[in-house]
Here is the input.
Amino acid sequence: MSINSPAGEELSALIAAAGVNMAASGSIPAIRRVAIFGGTHGNELSGVFLVKHWLKHGGEIARPGVEVRPFITNPKAVEKCVRYIDTDLNRVFDSQSLSDDVGKLPYEIAQAQKINSLFGPKGSKDAYDVILDLHNTTAHMGATLILESSTDDFNIQMCKYIQKSMAPLPCAVLLIEQPGVKYETTRSIAKHPIGVEVGPQPQGVIRADILYIMKIVVQYALDFMQYFNEGIEFPPCSIEVYRVLEKIDYPRDDNGDLSAVIHPTLQDQDWKPLNPGDPMFIAMDGSITYYEGEETVYPTFVNEAAYYEKKQAFVKTEKVTLTAQSIHCNSV
Amino acid sequence: MSINSPAGEELSALIAAAGVNMAASGSIPAIRRVAIFGGTHGNELSGVFLVKHWLKHGGEIARPGVEVRPFITNPKAVEKCVRYIDTDLNRVFDSQSLSDDVGKLPYEIAQAQKINSLFGPKGSKDAYDVILDLHNTTAHMGATLILESSTDDFNIQMCKYIQKSMAPLPCAVLLIEQPGVKYETTRSIAKHPIGVEVGPQPQGVIRADILYIMKIVVQYALDFMQYFNEGIEFPPCSIEVYRVLEKIDYPRDDNGDLSAVIHPTLQDQDWKPLNPGDPMFIAMDGSITYYEGEETVYPTFVNEAAYYEKKQAFVKTEKVTLTAQSIHCNSV
Here is the structure.
């Protein structure tokens, strides 16, 4: 495959032109261990397919001096093509679940502890440097990178690099940092966790177009790490991200059943502005629920199948700018 | 809601213009009992939503002189938002399953027997006249009516009426009559069974656009039955249908895992011609599997999530024309 990505020389030229003060830049250890997780949700098939493929064809993701390990995180859920067996694996990497040893554990808790021992321990110096966790959504989000911290310069630089490489295809960055909305993800055991979310794709389906987008996101991420390891300095940068504010549930009746559905003017409009007074939901009698907030927000995960049970029709986000100082590898 | 449907007077004018020989027409009993099934597959949510809605708001589907009964056929699967609990409810209405009484039955077999006692017995004079069974697909099939017989004049006339009423929106008719491909559906207990399949919609998701299409298909079907009961004569007609020929599986490796995916030129192209030499699948190394048949066929159910486990990437169909003689109600 031929990818039109920024080569090292172009980046060096960019850096020279920017007149970066090398002394002020962030000095970061080389990236030596990277995991690519698929099947954290067993019915999100692009990541399952890619990880299974790379387990057989590791050359496609090999990078000099880096261990790149593809891994199916929830094999039982993959086998049954369901999101999870007992509980959502992508919500249980909190310290209590990771240390719980009383009696028979739910499958995903036991699996979380196994993953933590293989790729963590979470928060320790032994944890993997980077985990790319591959997900699909039924929402029209396109390629999306999910950050858990607004202050991780390495990850911000990686997002910037992937966005540039993807252009003119869009690649949104979602920041899930808000207490009460943030959750303890599978990838959170890494020093630099990144979620890769690509949609729209139904659960249990593999689409070639979505598969391709996920593949190139991973390859650009690995390219970035390789350039970084080779000593390329990445100049200070800023990126626009969508920061999660709160989740919005569907209107429901007394039984908890949906009493209205996503309005057609909101459906498939992830990342587009939702202005005060815009429709959000419509019921069978034609009645409309309007957005009554005072600020324009940017909905995403609009009509994601897995979030009906989580009482979430979409999440409201706001646009914010994150900045990163220049970074370079301190162990070249 | 305002629907632009052929009113009785227009139909009478049509009939007069056609100079139909009333004596030659088919005389059929009035339609007195109609069931609308939702949730035969618990994660196909348009039908679930509509049936639950109509259970509360029966006036929308009421027709004079007809019992119209909305019914959730697989409530446990609906509750869990899965296709089925033990086995596919839409495949077990064979005589053996319906009469089996040995020991503890799988949930769907027990449910099939219950449904057969409520709306059947299958093949008897006591069976419901019409069952509309509501389904969704992840394939880009639009509105689709599924017939199980090429000789049911009443159903062919109903399809013709719905197609005319839907225009200029398309409404395909799929004929599943081929031995080896046909299966014993939930709706098969009715004298006139019709499957209503609308997509694309992911499993576990309700989209307003798909919901609307399903709603109007049901309403046009009920309108047709009402006009028929009122004595309107429907002149001889023909419709073009897609007759199922055989199913085609994905290329798979030794483990049974997919080794290739639907080619982008076939994805979302349900009902479009697949000509000899056209691509069907593409693997990660770029290798393509081409269609090597000698005749042009018309794929449908392309990349339906539920059919991965049934070893079916799509079904090949051929276009055939069905004809029906004129029909009128013999009990006005």
